[in-house]
Amino acid sequence: MEKCAQKYKKLDNNDVKFLVDLLGQERVFTGKDINDDFSHDELGGVSKYPDAMVEVLSAEEVSKIMAYAYENNIPVVGRGSGTGLVGSSVPIEGGIMINMTQMNNILEIDEENLTLTLEPGVLLMDIAKYVEDHDLFYPPDPGEKSATIGGNISTNAGGMRAVKYGVTRDYVRGLEIVLPTGKILELGGKVVKNSSGYSIKDLICGSEGTLGIITKIILKLLPLPKKSISLLVPFPDLETAINTVPKIIKSKSIPTAIEFMQREVILAAEEFLGKKFPDNSSDAYLLLTFDGNSKEQIEADYEKVADICLEEGALDVYISDTDERKEAVWSARGAFLEAVKATTTEMDECDVVVPRNRVAEFVKYTNDLQKQFNIRIRSFGHAGDGNLHVYILRDDLSKEEWEKKLSDIFDCMYKKSEELDGLVSGEHGIGYAKKKYMFRQYGEDYIALMKNIKLAFDPKNILNPGKVCE
Amino acid sequence: MEKCAQKYKKLDNNDVKFLVDLLGQERVFTGKDINDDFSHDELGGVSKYPDAMVEVLSAEEVSKIMAYAYENNIPVVGRGSGTGLVGSSVPIEGGIMINMTQMNNILEIDEENLTLTLEPGVLLMDIAKYVEDHDLFYPPDPGEKSATIGGNISTNAGGMRAVKYGVTRDYVRGLEIVLPTGKILELGGKVVKNSSGYSIKDLICGSEGTLGIITKIILKLLPLPKKSISLLVPFPDLETAINTVPKIIKSKSIPTAIEFMQREVILAAEEFLGKKFPDNSSDAYLLLTFDGNSKEQIEADYEKVADICLEEGALDVYISDTDERKEAVWSARGAFLEAVKATTTEMDECDVVVPRNRVAEFVKYTNDLQKQFNIRIRSFGHAGDGNLHVYILRDDLSKEEWEKKLSDIFDCMYKKSEELDGLVSGEHGIGYAKKKYMFRQYGEDYIALMKNIKLAFDPKNILNPGKVCE
C-alpha cells in the first residue's frame, strides 16, 4: 500500500467520545466490534479496517462528523452496501467509516415532475419495485441489485439498459452532499434543465466518494414501458455473436439491452442457481431486450433484429415474452458474477469499455490470453454498450504465481483497451485497484488536473484518501 | 465593470507579432479591423473589444496561443457565433479573442457506434441536416440554430426536446479541450459508458468557456424517428394552458416538446416573418410534438394528450402532420426571440428554470410584474421542461429608468424562482449578466467551491475571466 505523504491523526479516545456523544453508543463501532465485511469490498485485492465505523441517520450527522474530522485531520470513508469491485470504499488509511445504509428512506415520489427523492442507502432493488408500483420506471440497471443508490451514483455504474437509456448520471437530477469541510450543498433539483454555474452534480457522479458524501438524491423517472420482450439468440461462437452487435446498432433498431454470454458462464450459473437456463447447447449467446408501449412497435423492432442475427449466423432465436420466461434468463444473467466466483478460489476483473464495434476484437484477445497465460478467463457483459466484465480466475495458483500472472494479464488487457480507443472502466470505477492503469492511459497532465479538482473540494485530503487520482 | 484584482499584461506589438507569426497576417485582427460584432453578444448588457481577434484552424494553434497567453498573463476568450445572451463571450478584460468559427468541419459519422465527430465551429443547423441525411438524429434543439456546437456545449443549452430527450450534456460523448496552460486533453470518447476518474467532460459542458477551450467533439446520435406530428392547442388564457402541462406529464405520455406561447408573441412573429400563423384568435397556446417510429403509437399518445387538453379547457386541437404545416408553426416558434426584439428598442431576459408544476405560478407572477412596473414583459418557452424565457422590453424608457426597472424586476423574478425551487438559468448560462443572482441563490460556500474548481483548471485566471463564479 502506498504511503501518504501527509500524516493523519490516529483516532483516539477523545475522538471516539465525540462520535458516541453525537450518535449514541449503539451506532459507534470500534476494534473487534467492527464486522469483517467493513474491511473490504467484493473484489479489488485490498483490505483494511477503519478505526471506527459509525451509522448515520441524517445529513446533519454526516456534516458534524466531517467538520470534526476536517478540524482534526482524520480520514473518513463513506460506505453503502460494500458491493464495489475496485476497493473504493476500503479505508486504506483507517480513520472513520460512515455507514450510510441506515439512511434508507424514500422521501417523495412526484408524479407531476417525474422525480423520486430518496436517501442514499436505499437499495437498487427497492427503487425498481417502488417506482414500478407507481407505474414508473428508473432505467439504470446494474447487475448488483443490492447496491445502494448512493454507492451506485458514486461509481456511475450504468448497467444493462445503457444501450437505450443512458447511464446513472443521466438520471440524477439533484444531490445533497456534505463536503470534506462539513458544509452541506444542494446541487441541481427537480428541474429538467440547469445551466446555473459549473455542474458539480455531474462531477460528484462517478467520483467514488472522494469529493463529498451524498446524503440526498433526486432521480429522474420515466413512464414504465408497457411491454417488453427478451430474445435469447444462440450462435456457433462468440466472435460471430459479438460481430452481430454493430450491425444491429447500424440497423437503427435500438434494443434496451444487448448482453453476451458464453456456455461456460451459463453452466456455472445453472450450477450456482440450481436452475436450468432455457438453452445451453451453443457456444455463445446474445440476450436482447426490447421495450416500448406498443406490441406492434416492439415486434417490428425485434423481428428486424432477429433477421439480422440469423443472417449473421445465429442458430436460432428464442423469444421470451412471458414474465416467467424473462425471469429465467435474466435471473441467470444477474447471477453470473457470483456464479463465476463460486467456481474458483479467487478472482479479479477488468471492466474496460471500448467502442461498440471493437468488443469482438477485445473479447477475442482475452480468449487468446487464456492460452498464453494458461489461466481461466471468463467474460460476459454489455455487448450493446461496449462495457465488458472479464474475470481472471486464480484456481489453484500459488499467491506469487497469481499476483504475477494477474498483473501481467491486466497489463495486456488495459494496453489492448487503449489501443482500441477504450477506457479503463465502464462502470465499476477506478478506486484503489485500477489507478495504475488509469494513470498510464491518461498521463501526467490529466492526472494533475484531477488532483487539482480533488484539492478544490478537499484541501486536507481527508475524504477517502488514496483513491481514484492519488 | 468590476475590477480584477489581478493585473493582466496589456497586449503589445511583440504579442501581436507572435500571433501573426503563428497564424499569418490574414487571421489576426487588431484595433479598427475588429468588427463591432466581436465586442458583444446578443443581449447581456455588456460590451468590450478584444485587443486582438484571431481565427484558428486547429487545436495545435489554440494550444500555442493559450500557452503563450499563460506564460505572459494575457486574458483569452473563446467565441463561436456570439449568439449568447448573458455576455459569456464578451472579453471584459480585453486580451485575445479566439474565434472558433473556422474550425467547422464534420470529421466523421460512425454508424456502428452512432457517433458524430466534429469541430466546435459547426453550426447547429448544419448538424441537424447532416445527420438527418444519414437517417440519424441529434436531439438537442436550441432555438438559435446559427449557434456553434462548441458554444452550445459551453452553455449546455438544451432546447425544445429536453422533455423527452434530455439536454446537450447527455449527448456529448467525448471532448478534446485545450486547458488554460495550453495542454491538450482528450476526455471520454466514442464509448457509451465511462467511470474512469472524475468526469471532466461533464464539468466542461456548461462551464461557459472558463475552464478550457473545446477543439473537438464526439456526439451521441439516435436513429431518426420515422414519424412526428405537432399539435397546436388554443386555450382561453395562459394559466389554463400551462396548468395542463403537469397533467400531461402525469398521464405518462411524454411528448417530445411542449412549448407555450401567447397571442402577443404570435402577432409579433407574424409581423416579423410576414407569414400567418395557423391560428391567432386565442389568448394562449400550447404547441406539442410527438415523435416515434409507429403511426399507431404516436396517435395513441397524442389522442390521450388531446383529450386531457380538452378536459382542462382547451378550445380546440389543431393537428399538423404534414411537413409544411409543422414548418409553419415551428418556424414561427423559432423566430420568437427576434420577433419580440424587433418590437422594442432594447430588451433583456430571464431564463429561469422551475419544476414543471410551478411554471404557471411563475408566469402568472411575471404578468403581475407588468402592471406593477408598468412595463411590457413577453414570455414564451419550454413549458414541458420548466425553462422559461421571459423578456423585459425597454420601449421608450430613459436609460436610467430602464436600468432601475430592469434591476428591480430581475430581483423580483430571481427571488420568485428561488421560492419555487427553481434555478437562475435553464440553458442560457450565467456569464457576466447573471452572476449576481446565482451568487445570491447559491451562497458563499457554493461559490467558493466553484472558484476553487476554476483555479484547479486556470491558476492564473486568464481564460474568460470575470465570468460565471468570479
From TrEMBL, chains A, B:
Keyword entries, A-Z: FAD, Flavoprotein, Oxidoreductase
Cofactor or coenzyme needed: FAD
Annotated ranges, domain FAD-binding PCMH-type: 46-224
Molecular-function annotations in GO: (S)-2-hydroxy-acid oxidase activity
Main enzyme class: oxidoreductase
Keyword Oxidoreductase appears in the UniProt entry: yes
EC annotation from Swiss-Prot or TrEMBL: 1.1.3.15
This protein's record includes keyword Flavoprotein: yes
Native source organism of the sequence: Clostridium algifaecis
Protein's UniProt name: Glycolate oxidase
